[in-house]
Amino acid sequence: MTEQIRYRINRDLVEQAERVCEDLGLSPTQAVSLFFAQLVKLGALPFRPSTFPALDEYGATLADADAAEGRALKEIQADRRAGKVVRFTGKLP
Predict the structure, then answer these.
(1) What is the SS3 string spanning 13-64?
(2) Which residues contact 43 (CB under 8 A, 6 or more apart)?
(3) How far apart are CA 29 and CA 92, in angstroms?
(4) Radius of gyration of the chain from its Cα atoms, rounded to whole angstroms
């Protein structure tokens, strides 16, 4: 079952993200779904916000970002050892 959601996001950011999605061969819906899936799986952001100045605004600290990165790296290493990591060719199956 799917749910239609609405969030307020800066229009310029949305347009830039849509162009990136198009370059990657993803729809914005697929990109947001991937983000949400990784967010839930990791229990944290699936990336380290390096140039994102608003960590405090969202109640996160650099320590939180470091911890999330560490968890993500451990998971990736475990997936590599298990043979679950495949090279991304820019197209989804």
Answers:
(1) HHHHHHHHHHHHCCCHHHHHHHHHHHHHHHCCCCCCCCCCCCCHHHCCCHHH
(2) 71
(3) 14
(4) 15
CA distance linking residue 18 with residue 47, whole number of Å: 19
Q: What is the pLDDT of residue 45?
A: 85
Q: How far apart are CA 36 and CA 52, in angstroms?
A: 18
Burial category of 38 from C-beta neighbours within 10 Å (exposed 0-12, middle 13-18, buried 19 and up): middle
- The answer on pLDDT for 14 being more than 90 is yes
Whole-angstrom distance, CA of residue 46 vs CA of residue 68: 7
Q: Is the pLDDT of residue 61 over 80?
A: no
